[in-house]
Amino acid sequence: xxxxxxxxxxxxxxxxxxxxxxxxxxxxxxxxxxxxxxxxxxxxxxxxxxxxxxxxxxxxxxxxxxxxxxxxxxxxxxxxxxxxxxxxxxxxxxxxxxxxxxxxxxxxxxxxxxxxxxxxxxxxxxxxxxxxxxxxxxxxxxxxxxxxxxxxxxxxxx
Length: 158
Known about the structure:
Shape: globular
CATH superfamily: NADH:ubiquinone oxidoreductase Nqo5 subunit
Distance between the termini: 62 Å
Number of helices: 3
Oligomer: single chain
CATH class: Alpha Beta
Helix content: 10-25%
Structural class: alpha/beta
Number of domains: 1
Strand content: 25-35%
Largest sheet: 5 strands, mixed
CATH topology: Beta Polymerase, domain 2
Radius of gyration: 17 Å
């Protein structure tokens, strides 16, 4: 399959090409504070990110994080920030993840994902299926809990 045209594209062109290629995997596309956000299904994230990198030229994954919404189901959004190094195109992909469910690791697609996935696991408890070393990076191994979850206590009584 050929790479799609790059010169003169906009982020909207990329988002629409992705929606056209994966109509059932993309739940919606929204512009939120000037940022184009693609909402994808959890089970399709690997193929969506691989297509963005290999066919649409968004070859730089500069962040993965997660957001905790304890009052909502699914509880978490895993957020991927991608950029094209050849163009001025940046895109955000969000995937809702239920507590206790895992999202596929994308370490085999983007080397930079390794550290980001470990951080989301350590700080929020989000599981990444297939990660080569999903262990804590900030907190001690015997630490109980995940400090960036909303219910985590801010202070302890001594």
